[in-house]
Amino acid sequence: MHIFYLDEIPQGQTVKINDIKELHHMINVLRVNPNEIIEIIYGRGSMFSGVVDSINPKQAILNIKERKYFDRNNVHFSLTVACSLIKTDKMELAVENLTELGVDKIIFLETERSQLKIKEFEKKIDRLKKISIFALKQSANIFLPKIEFMIF
Predict the structure, then answer these.
(1) Cα pseudo-dihedral 117, 119, 123, 124, rounded to 10
(2) CA end-to-end span of the chain, whole Å?
(3) Phi, psi dihedral angles at 103 (to 5 degrees)
(4) Among 140, 151, 130, 141, which Cα is nearest to 21's?
(5) DSSP category for residue 145
(6) Which are the contacts of 16, defined by CB distance < 8 A and separation ≥ 6?
(7) What is the mean pLDDT of the chain?
(8) Cα gap 47→68, rounded to integer Å
(9) Is the pLDDT score of 150 beyond 80?
(10) Is the dihedral of CA 146, 114, 90, 127 positive or negative?
(11) Which of 54, 75, 95, 113 is deepest in the core (most CB within 10 A)?
């Protein structure tokens, strides 16, 4: 079953998907057709499955058939990973792999002997979030990790 990501929790029984990137992935890559069942994740513990009613390059309409809610407080553990600042490509790989593993929070630390500085990476937080969303969809995880930078 195909999984897609939305920033907002759908209200009601019908969901309109307007995100251009998700629509491109849905139409051109996965070739989703009407009457197919897909899943929508929100990244904060919600999963919705439903049937595609109609789809075009500007909008897809989904009829929700099932809603699942998961509470992070019911999980027996919470996992936070902190690591020093690393080069961009390695940082992206770390975010991807840690998201797939189900980490709750990722903290990148600038330490006394760090050669890299936080100011270089604060602009890239959106890129890291996109990578995290991609990994979330890939692994069918429910919770999107928080990504933070800290001076230690």
Answers:
(1) 10
(2) 43
(3) -70, 140
(4) 130
(5) P
(6) 59, 60, 61, 62
(7) 84
(8) 5
(9) yes
(10) positive
(11) 95
Q: What are the angstrom distances between the C-alpha of 101 and each of 42, 62, 105, 111, 139? A: 17, 29, 11, 25, 8
Residue 43's Cβ-side half-sphere holds a number of Cα atoms within 13 Å equal to 20
All structural domains of the chain, each given as residue ranges with its CATH number in brackets, are 2-70 (2.40.240.20), 74-151 (3.40.1280.10)
Residue among 128, 146, 143 at smallest CA distance from 42? 143
Instruction: Report how far Cα 42 is from the mean position of its chain's Cα atoms.
Output: 8
* pLDDT for the residue 116: 78
Tens of pLDDT along 50-83?
899 888 888 888 888 888 877 766 666 788 999 8
